[in-house]
Each structure stands twice: as structure tokens, then as C-alpha cells.
Specification:
By secondary structure, this protein is an alpha+beta fold. Helices cover 39% and strands 17% of the residues. It contains four helices and four strands. It is globular, with a radius of gyration of 16 Å.
Length: 157
């Protein structure tokens, strides 16, 4: 029987999350990127400062997205506008529509493009296969998109 997340100590919760991400990383390690090169899928490098492909999982679900965190709001919004130019290419490649927020609705100072899936729980190991499928499918498609689009973002380097 799984414990309620509130019953885990901070250390136990950290260990479970670390185990999940280690498992995911091990599963993805042999899969090359769209350009044929090895990729650290858990800590994906876009090569652009303040531009990240982020994955997260907790007791409520899984989340994957593109975060633009430049401290300069004008640069952040220019980054977002650049992604808007690729919106149809991104959605076509992913096969689904993602949420687009110039400023996070929770007030955090970053722009975000992403998708969530609720009903999965990182503290339930039986959910891990579905969580891994969710992340794998989308990270591979994001990588393929980025391989085609990244040169349009060279002005940010």
C-alpha cells in the first residue's frame, strides 16, 4: 500500500524523486538525439542561456515544457515571440496543442509553453511506466523540433 505523500519525510520524498529521475535517465540514455548525438535527457541543454526544456513530476501529475527565464522581461518576451513564429511547427510535430503563457499564471517571472497530465503520482511506482512514456514521447519530439528550429534562436547566444 502506498503512503500518502504527506507521510513521507522530506528525505524519503527526495529519494523517491531521485530514484524516478535516475530510472528515467537510464531508460533514455541509449537513445540518441535527433542529430544522432548523445543527449542528457533529464538535463536537456538547449545551448541558449535562460531557455530550458523542463520536466517535473509530483503527486498530482507530470509536466513538461519550455521555460524562458531571462531576467530581462523584454528579452524573455522576444524569446516567446520567436517561439510563436514556430507555433504551428511545434504543435504539428508534437501532435497536440500546448499551453502558451507570456507570463506564468502563478505570477512567476518566466514565459512558458507546456503541457500537464494529471492523475499520475511520482510516489506510486506503478505510475512510473506511464510517466516515462509521457516524458519520452514529448522529449524526443521536442528534441526533433529543436534540431530544426534552434538556429533561429542564435541571436540569443
Amino acid at each position: 500500500m502506498e503512503k500518502n505523500v504527506a507521510l513521507y519525510s522530506r528525505e524519503e520524498a527526495r529519494k523517491i524523486k531521485t530514484e524516478f529521475w535516475t530510472t528515467f535517465g537510464g531508460y533514455m540514455k541509449p537513445i540518441p538525439g535527433a542529430d544522432g548525438e548523445p543527449v542528457n535527457w533529464v538535463n536537456y541543454r538547449t545551448g541558449i542561456k535562460h531557455l530550458y526544456f523542463r520536466m517535473d513530476a509530483d503527486q498530482r501529475g507530470v509536466h513538461i515544457g519550455i521555460q524562458m527565464t531571462d531576467p530581462d522581461q523584454a528579452v524573455r518576451l522576444l524569446m516567446f515571440e520567436q517561439f510563436l513564429a514556430f507555433r504551428s511547427l511545434l504543435h504539428e510535430g508534437l501532435g497536440e496543442d500546448w499551453v502558451w503563457e507570456k507570463v506564468r499564471s502563478n505570477g512567476e517571472p518566466y514565459a512558458y509553453i507546456g503541457i500537464d497530465q494529471t492523475g499520475l503520482n511520482i510516489f506510486k511506482k506503478e505510475d512510473w511506466p506511464e510517466m516515462i512514456r509521457f516524458f519520452k514521447h514529448r522529449m524526443l519530439l521536442l528534441d526533433a523540433f529543436w534540431t530544426d528550429a534552434k538556429h533561429s534562436f542564435d541571436w540569443l547566444r
